[in-house]
Write a structure and sequence with these properties.
Layout lengths: L2 E5 L5 E6 L11 H14 L60 H18 L2 E4 L9 H10 L10 E5 L4 H7 L5 E5 L5 H6 L2 E5 L6 H5 L2
Parallel strand pairs: 1-3, 3-6, 4-5, 4-6
Antiparallel strand pairs: 1-2
Helix pairs in contact: 1-2, 3-4
C-alpha cells in the first residue's frame, strides 16, 4: 500500500497516511495511458487548417504563353500547382474532425495507472484543507513552498480540491505550471503532466466514486 505525507496549510508535516487501494492498487498499464493521452491531444486539435485549390486562387485566367513553338513546356495557367503561388493539391481543408473516442474502462484504467505512477515517484502530498476567504496567490505560493515545490522552477503541480473551489482556482491560475481541478474531474493527461500532485485529504473519502467516474 502506498503512503503519502500529510501537510498543513502552514507547511508542517503531521505524518503519513495510507492512500486508498481503489485508486492506488499498483497497476500501471502503459498502453492504456498512451491511448488516453493520444486521444486527449488529438481532441484538442481544431482542424481549421485550410489551403486553396487552383480553382480558388485568383488570377491565371490567361494562358502564360502559346501552346507550341516556344520550346518550353505547355502551360495553361500560372495558378497550376507546379507554379509558385499556385493552388495546392490535396491540401488540408477546414472542419476536419480529429476526435478520438476511448472506452470508459480504458479511461478508468489509464487514470488509475497515472495515480500509481505518481505514487511510485513519491510525488503525492495530502493537504488537510485549503480555506481561503478571498483569492490570494501568495497563500498558494506558500503552500507550494511547504510541499517543496517552488513556482517557476520548471515543476508542474496539480492541485485536487475537495469539491469545486473557485477561490482556490482564481488564486493559482496566474502561477505558471500550476493547475487546479476538483477531485474526480482530473484526467490521466493532467496526472501525467504534473510532477507533483497535491490532494485535499477529505477528498479521498470519495475515492471509490472517483475510481469509476
Amino acid at each position: 500500500m502506498y503512503k503519502a505525507p500529510v501537510i498543513t496549510a502552514e507547511g508542517e508535516k503531521t505524518g503519513d497516511r495510507d492512500l486508498p487501494e481503489v485508486l492506488f492498487d499498483g497497476t500501471v498499464h502503459e498502453a492504456a495511458m498512451w491511448q488516453v493521452v493520444k486521444a486527449y491531444l488529438a481532441n484538442q486539435r481544431q482542424g481549421t487548417a485550410s489551403t486553396k485549390t487552383r480553382a480558388q486562387v485568383s488570377g491565371g485566367a490567361r494562358k502564360p504563353w502559346r501552346q507550341k513553338g516556344t520550346g518550353r513546356a505547355r502551360q495553361g495557367s500560372i495558378r497550376s500547382p507546379q507554379w509558385r503561388g499556385g493552388g495546392s493539391v490535396f491540401g488540408p481543408r477546414p472542419n476536419r474532425n480529429f476526435r478520438q473516442d476511448v472506452p470508459k474502462q480504458v479511461k478508468w484504467l489509464a487514470r488509475r495507472s497515472a495515480y500509481n505512477v505518481r505514487a511510485q515517484d513519491g510525488g503525492i502530498f495530502l493537504l488537510d484543507s485549503i480555506q481561503l476567504d478571498a483569492p490570494k496567490t501568495k497563500a498558494v505560493v506558500a503552500l507550494l513552498a511547504a510541499a517543496g515545490v517552488a513556482p517557476n522552477a520548471g515543476f508542474n503541480v496539480l492541485v485536487l480540491t475537495d469539491g469545486h473551489k473557485p477561490v482556490v482556482h482564481r488564486s493559482a491560475r496566474n502561477i505558471p505550471g500550476v493547475l487546479v481541478r476538483p477531485f474526480g474531474q482530473e484526467s490521466a493527461y493532467d496526472l501525467l503532466w504534473a510532477d507533483t500532485l497535491i490532494i485535499e485529504a477529505p477528498a479521498l473519502e470519495r475515492a471509490q466514486e472517483v475510481a469509476h467516474a
